[in-house]
Design goal:
Layout (H helix, E strand, L loop, with lengths): L3 H9 L25 E6 L19 E8 L4 E6 L4 E5 L4 E5 L4 E5 L5 E3 L5 E4 L6 E8 L8 E2 L1 H10 L2 E3 L5 E3 L15
């Protein structure tokens, strides 16, 4: 029989990868071809634009952790945070985009990049297989809402019908149409 301490830790501080809920519609860039990915929150709510994204470990740790599963051609559009962000590719290489000019740094599995506060960043999977990454953002709230590059916001609005409201939550525009292959779509 497990102790009360072990039972509490098992219930509130263990996140089983196989039980994490993937969200394909997590951010304003999610429906753009190069923004396709599945976000799996682990620790802390962090930066989210879909209010339904909840982590299994909710206690404030002073940082947030998520897995990101990226299909070939997918990734994240240029964005910035008010805190540093760390990317660690686990199962394949990833190209990290830095700055408005989208300069690229290629990371191999288990390499680490720490992108400074306020610097535009994104990433792409140019490989032929899905890859899994680990992402860490400082602060329980991830430093507040995402600051998207203007190009990402205008393309998302025009091509997918998604925008972000004043509170940093996803909102549907009149031209929004939900693709059938998108998970975590309650907006």
């Amino acid at each position: 029989m497990a102790s009360p301490l072990l039972e509490t830790i098992a219930r509130t501080r263990v996140a089983r990868f196989a039980e994490l809920k993937p969200f394909s519609l997590a951010f304003v860039d999610s429906l753009l071809p190069e923004g396709r990915k599945k976000n799996l929150k682990v620790i802390g709510r962090g930066v989210v634009e879909n209010a339904d994204m909840q982590p299994p470990i909710t206690e404030d740790h002073g940082f947030t952790i998520s897995y990101i599963v990226v299909p070939p051609g997918g990734g994240a559009g240029l964005h910035a945070h008010k805190t540093a962000e760390i990317f660690i590719p686990i199962s394949g290489p990833v190209h990290v985009l830095i700055g408005d000019d989208k300069e690229e740094i290629l990371l191999q599995p288990l390499d680490v990049i720490s992108v400074p506060t306020g610097v535009m960043r994104g990433f792409r999977n140019h490989g032929e297989r899905e890859l899994t990454m680990l992402a860490l953002v400082g602060g329980h709230t991830g430093g507040g809402s995402v600051t998207w590059h203007d190009e990402v916001l205008s393309r998302a609005a025009a091509e997918s019908g998604l925008a972000v409201d004043e509170q940093g939550n996803l909102k549907r525009l009149p031209n929004f149409k939900m693709p059938e292959d998108v998970e975590g779509s309650a907006i």
